[in-house]
Amino acid sequence: MMATIKEIQDEIILEFNDFDDWLDRYQLLIDLGGEQEPLPAEYKTDNNLIEGCQSRVWLQADFVDGKVFFRAESDALIVKGIVSLLIKVYSGRTPDEILDNEPYFVEAIGLKEHLSPTRSNGLLAMIKQMKLYALAFKAKN
Questions:
Q1: Do 88 and 130 meet the contact criterion of CB atoms below 8 Å apart?
Q2: Per-residue confidence of the chain (141 residues) as pLDDT tens digits?
Q3: Architecture per CATH, 5-140
Q4: Residue 53 a catalytic site member
Q5: Cα distance between residue 14 and residue 64, in whole Å
Q6: Given 5, 39, 53, 111, which residue is catalytic?
Q7: Is there a contact between 101 and 6 (Cβ–Cβ < 8 Å)?
Q8: Residues whose CB is less than 8 angstroms from the CB of residue 113 and which lie 6 or more positions away in sequence, other chains included
Q9: What DSSP letter does each residue of the chain carry, written as one string?
Q10: What separation in angstroms does the CA of 7 have from each of 3, 12, 75?
Q11: What is the DSSP string of 98-125?
C-alpha cells in the first residue's frame, strides 16, 4: 500500500533532520534535484511555466484513473530539489488528498526560513499551482 501524504512528509522531515548544517541540507536538495528525471521537451511550454518563480520551473500535471501525476523541471538545482520533494508528496494522489493536505514539511525542515524571499515566493507558487491543478481535475471529474 502506498504511504500516506503525512507519512511521506514525516519521512522527508526525518531525512533532513539527519543534517544539522544548512549547507548539508542544500546539498541534499541539489542531490534530489539531480536524481529527478528530466521533463520531456514537449512539456517545457510557456503554459507549464510557473509564474512567480525566480528560476524557470515547468510543471506538467496529468490526470489518470482519478489521480494527479506531476512532473517538473527547473533550470536551478535547488529549485529542482524542492520540486522533487513536492512531487514525492503530491504525485499519484487524488485531487481531494492534494487539496486536504498542506505541505507542512516545508516549514518543518526549515525551508521557509532558509530560502531567499524570491525562492520562497516560487515555492508558494509551485504549491498553489499543484493545488489549482487538483481543483481543476476535481471539477472536471
A1: no
A2: 789 999 999 999 999 999 989 999 999 999 999 998 889 999 999 999 998 777 899 999 999 999 999 999 999 888 999 999 999 999 999 999 999 999 999 999 998 888 888 888 889 999 999 999 999 999 997
A3: Alpha-Beta Complex (3.90)
A4: yes
A5: 30
A6: 53
A7: yes
A8: none
A9: -PPPHHHHHHHHHHHHHT--SHHHHHHHHHHHHHHSPPPPGGG-SGGGBPTT-SS-EEEEEEEETTEEEEEEEESSHHHHHHHHHHHHHHTTB-HHHHHH---THHHHTTHHHHS-HHHHHHHHHHHHHHHHHHHHHHHH-
A10: 6, 9, 29
A11: HHH---THHHHTTHHHHS-HHHHHHHHH
Report the chain's terminal Cα–Cα distance, integer Å: 24
**Residue for grid cell 492534494:** 98
Are 61 and 135 in contact by the 8 Å Cβ rule? The answer is no
Asked whether the CA dihedral 36, 40, 44, 49 is positive or negative, the reply is: negative
Give residue limits of the domains in the chain: 5-140
